[in-house]
TrEMBL record:
One MF term in the entry's GO annotations: glyoxylate reductase (NADPH) activity
Species lineage: Eukaryota, Metazoa, Chordata, Craniata, Vertebrata
Residue ranges constituting the D-isomer specific 2-hydroxyacid dehydrogenase NAD-binding domain according to the UniProt record: 157-320
Keyword Oxidoreductase: yes
InterPro entries documented for this protein: D-isomer_2-hydroxyacid_DH (IPR050223), D-isomer_DH_NAD-bd (IPR006140), NAD(P)-bd_dom_sf (IPR036291)
Sections of the chain in a coiled coil: none
Entry annotated with the keyword Transit peptide: no
Biased composition (Polar residues): 323-341
Listed GO CC annotations: cytosol
Family: Belongs to the D-isomer specific 2-hydroxyacid dehydrogenase family.
Highest taxon, organism lineage: Eukaryota
Alphabetical list of Pfam families matching this protein: 2-Hacid_dh_C (PF02826)
Disordered: annotated segments: 311-341
Name of this chain's protein: Glyoxylate reductase/hydroxypyruvate reductase
Length: 341
């Protein structure tokens, strides 16, 4: 009697409408599998869900090295091609794959995607997404938390060290042909033995604490939830229940919080005035966490010694505005910040 084999072709990206293949045994399992492998590839491709991306390559496009990985699970549609006929393409798009915030998940676009199941953002933060609106459309939001924690912690420590030791200023002085001797005030501030205050002790914040501990710094942290005793002991960290306590005690304050309605404007004039006049503010979070005008005033007046900024609001800061700094993304400012007259 001829035996019948049913093969359930599981497509990872599709949880519904899974196709079935019916194959009769002719000469054992090996021959059966050989027959299975010659199923039309085109039919398999057509069963993959469609994913909308900004473009392949470019500043904000999907990396070419990643294209084959994505195409293994999806049929790929670039944004410009989508715009040629959104009525045709919109209903078949089930995934919006974002890289560097593009394609922008605006309501007008999302409403043109009635079959949308997921909006996937390649990064840790989702503050650029209206999660409630997306969920209301029946779609889920995914991100990659922790993917840049180590790199961000390295950057935070690099900004702290460069600011403390005034490395950028020293570099400019050393390259200046008019320089005859290095000013003593470029020696900067000590890092080892100083107090590091971390606002936001998530994955990135904890890795910053590890680096600070390696530099023999006293580590304080303020977080919505206290870390375990084991974590605290691993980096020699002390929990500050109140942000004010951390600000008044720290020589270096590092902001590592997510941008939420609670953290927007977290550091303003009042908070800056609580800090030591010798303190440095390091922001690797989001520009909106700090009141930019209040920070500029604090630097001008000597309320704090310096600020080292990876992020600003707006970003980059307009050079024709009230204030500007010398670099657009990784930025350093001291009391003598560059201003427009």
């Amino acid at each position: 009697m001829m035996e019948m084999f049913y093969f359930h072709l599981h497509l990872q990206a599709m949880e519904q409408d899974k196709p079935w293949a019916l194959i009769s045994e002719v000469g054992g399992v090996s021959q059966m599998m050989e027959m299975f492998c010659v199923l039309p590839r085109q039919a398999m491709e057509q069963d993959k869900p469609w994913a909308l991306i900004s473009e392949v390559g470019g500043d904000c496009g999907l990396l070419e090295d990643h294209l084959d990985i994505v195409k293994h699970h999806f049929q790929v549609l670039c944004y410009q091609d989508f715009l040629q006929n959104p009525e045709l393409h919109g209903p078949k798009v089930q995934a919006l794959l974002m890289w560097r915030y593009y394609p922008e998940a605006r309501p007008a676009l999302l409403r043109m995607l009635p079959s949308l199941k997921v909006v996937s953002s390649g990064g840790a933060g989702v503050d650029h997404l209206d999660v409630a609106f997306i969920n209301g459309l029946g779609a889920k939001v995914s991100n990659t938390p922790g993917v840049v924690s180590r790199a961000t912690a390295d950057l935070a420590m690099g900004l702290l060290l460069a600011s403390a030791r005034r490395i950028l200023e020293g570099h400019r002085v050393a390259r200046d042909p008019e320089t005859r001797r290095i000013p003593l005030n470029l020696q900067g501030a000590d890092v080892s033995g100083a107090t590091l205050g971390i606002v936001g002790m998530g994955d990135t914040g904890f890795k910053i604490a590890q680096r600070g501990h390696g530099f023999e710094m006293d580590v304080l942290y303020h977080n919505r939830n206290r870390r375990s005793l084991e974590d605290e002991q691993a980096v020699g960290a002390t929990f500050c229940q109140k942000l004010d306590e951390l600000l008044t005690r720290s020589d270096f304050v590092v902001l590592a919080v997510r941008l939420t309605s609670e953290t927007a404007g977290l550091i303003g004039t009042r908070e800056l005035e609580l800090m030591k006049p010798t303190a440095t503010l390091v922001n690797i979070s989001r520009g909106q966490v700090v009141d930019q005008d209040a920070l500029v005033q604090a630097l001008r007046s000597g309320t704090i010694r310096a600020a080292a900024l990876d992020v600003t609001h707006p970003e980059p800061l307009p050079r024709s505005g009230k204030h500007s700094v010398s670099q657009s993304h990784v930025q350093m400012t001291q009391k003598n910040i560059e201003t427009d007259s």
